[in-house]
Amino acid sequence: MNALEILFYALSAFTIVSAIMVLISKNPIHSVLWLILVFFAISGHYILLNAQFLAIVNIIVYAGAIMVLFLFVIMLMNVKKDKEPQKQLLVKLIGVIAGGSFLTLLIALVKQNTSFDRSSVLLKEGTIGLIHPLGKALFTDFVVPFEISSVLFLSAMVGAVIIGKK
Fold first, then answer.
1. Tell me, what's the pLDDT at 166?
2. Residue-level pLDDT at 121
3. pLDDT band at 119 (very low <50, low <70, confident <90, very high)
4. What is the per-residue pLDDT across 45-54, written as a single tens digit (0 to 9) for each?
5. Burial (Cβ within 10 Å: 0-12, 13-18, ≥19) of residue 78
6. Global pTM?
7. Which CATH number describes the domain made up of 3-113+122-128?
């Protein structure tokens, strides 16, 4: 086992544990914080696959903007423990049956695909997900659409500020 495989398995375990904590946390704010950790772990997987741009976009967009939005919504809802409806036994039983069926399906799919060829996976090779070729393409071949979209985003931000002031 080399260092990349150990890092992959550690990131995978961390992702699974964090995702489980999202589901079992009683406090919704804690669930959002665990979800942020899941997004960071997934960004680590993107980096292992040499997709640096996807890793950065995942951190900026999902772990940054979307999670801040989730936190604001949860805080504005002012969720109280005593006002939550109690889940009925039938709903819990249906959830356990559905989750068990999904787990059985996943195990069957993994067992079916045991002939995985490790030589077909390329790690740290190629230039598809790297930032340098993407930036070079954006600022040479697609410079006009890139600048038009930046002006569009700037006008949208100014419009949001003007609407927000009223």
1. 67
2. 56
3. low
4. 999 888 888 8
5. exposed
6. 0.63
7. 1.20.120.1200
Could you give the CA distance from residue 126 to residue 115 in angstroms, rounded to a whole number? Answer: 25
Query: What single letter denotes the amino acid at residue 61?
Result: V
**Structure-token match 């992959």, residue found:** 8
Domain ranges of the chain: 3-113+122-128, 130-166
C-alpha 96/C-alpha 102 separation (Å) is 10
Residue 26 is given by DSSP the state S
Give the torsion through C-alpha atoms of 67, 58, 140, 124, to 10 deg: 170
Residue in this structure with the two tokens 């669930």, named with its chain if needed: 31
Q: Which residue has the tokens 């680590």?
A: 44
Q: What is the CA radius of gyration of the chain?
A: 22
